[in-house]
Amino acid sequence: MVLGFIGAGNMGGAILKGTIQSGHFDKSDMMVCEKDKAKRKSWEDLLLIKTTDDVKELVEKSDIIILGIKPDGFSEVMPLVAESISAGKILISIAAGISLEYLEGFLPPFSKIIRVMPNTPAMVGEGMSAVCYNKAVSRADLDLPVKIFESIGKVREVTEDLLHCVIGVSASAPAYTYLYIEALMEAAVNNGMDIEDAQIFAAQGVLGAAKMVLETGLEPKQLCLNVCSKGGTTIEAVDTLLNNGFKDKVKEAFQAAVEKSKAMTENKK
To answer: How far lies 82's CA from each of 192, 217, 237, in Å?
Structure first.
């Protein structure tokens, strides 16, 4: 089996590296298609893998093809993919706003297509990926693609209509969290802490809280209550956040991402 990447930027590169580390593919069975000559050379030098600038060559030589390109690049790339794809090959898209139906419109009938919505913590092995697929994909076809994405974090299967929700709750969520960490850092600096320590305290606080949610089995609401002693400092902070509409603002941001995803998908019909 050969795994090919059409585009290997931040997300595609994280998937590529994670897959190598997992041992599911050997470097000799991986290939990257990249137009930029300098980027191709960097992949060759860094990981000693094969590269090409020809989409059709990559598709012909690969059994599983991961499309790591931006949504606005699909109209150019998909006709080239269609020229070279053959029965049995699996195409995986990681782009927002690109539906299974849109991809099927370029390809021969019964082509196997999987959509995956990962997020950027994949770069540190803590990604969250949602997976859906068309009717041509069997459970056996799904096995190796799921293992690929498990190599960079957690994976859950969803129906395609839920991918908009996934974007709001997971794919875009790291950005909201970075803003929260940045706000904590700025507040700490305003209270006399140096910026390096502020970043460590804030980021570790968020990391530890997230692990508590995943590993204790307790609901976030209960974990919050467990920290909030009556008349203490934490309940004072939490009440201030709630009184200022903290949860409502987060939900508004979530919904903005969801609606944007829906609009992007609609524009591709």
So the answer is: 59, 46, 56
113 vs 104: CA distance, rounded Å: 8
More confident residue, 262 or 11: 262
Taking only the tens place, the pLDDT of each residue in 243-260 is 999 999 999 999 999 999
Is the pLDDT reported for residue 269 higher than 80?
A: no
Residue 160 pLDDT greater than 90, yes or no = yes
DSSP-assigned letters across all residues of 226-259: HH--TTSHHHHHHHHHHHTTHHHHHHHHHHHHHH
Q: Please give the pLDDT value at position 98.
A: 95
Specify whether 118 is located in the same domain as 195.
Answer: no
Residue type at 233? T
What domain range includes position 183?
A: 171-265
- Go through 146-178 and write b for each residue having 16 or more CB atoms within 10 A of its CB, e for each that does not: bebbbbbbebeeeebeebbbbbbbbbbbeeeee
Residue 113 dihedral angles phi and psi, to the nearest 5°: -130, 135
Residues 26 and 149 reside in one and the same domain: yes
| Contact by Cβ (8 Å): 63, 31 | no
**35 within domain boundaries:** yes
In this structure, is residue 235 part of a structural domain? yes
